[in-house]
């Protein structure tokens, strides 16, 4: 049962070819923490196929009548290939990500997707991480590379990949609800210390 703990809302953007664990782990953890979250397709189709041929039916599409990025307090970009390339090619999404960052609103990306933030200039002079195969993109665009599984710098959260999806999701929970909410969530997901 969903027990809402905040009026804040998160959008997890879903592109064909995403790494499904990186997107759905965030959705799961935010649900458990009571943070309203929508899966949002970047195409008019709400049904999306992951890089591992898993079919996901999204809550919304950016093409839906009445859809607005302004309805959200954080935008989350999962990785995966070619999902990251598809996210990067979605101009309304990249424009919204830049606007969110400039306004100090939440932006989060995992695996290959932090490379999108780097190329948009969002990670310049900021600590960040990504999948090792994309860390050169972060460095080339002025990021301060971190080896932490998930890195928080003000309104931006980045993470390395599928195996760090839980730390990534927990940092998003912490960003909205604080340390106590994360500590409450850990035993509920049987996270060993």
TrEMBL record:
Molecular functions (GO terms) = transferase activity
Q: Name one GO cellular component term.
A: cytoplasm
Q: Which of UniProt's keywords are assigned here?
A: Glutamine amidotransferase, Transferase
Q: Which InterPro entries match?
A: Class_I_gatase-like (IPR029062), DJ-1 (IPR006287), DJ-1/PfpI (IPR002818), Prot/Nucl_acid_deglycase (IPR050325)
- The residue ranges of the DJ-1/PfpI domain are 8-174
Under Pfam families, the record lists: DJ-1_PfpI
Superkingdom of source: Bacteria
**Entry protein name:** Glutamine amidotransferase
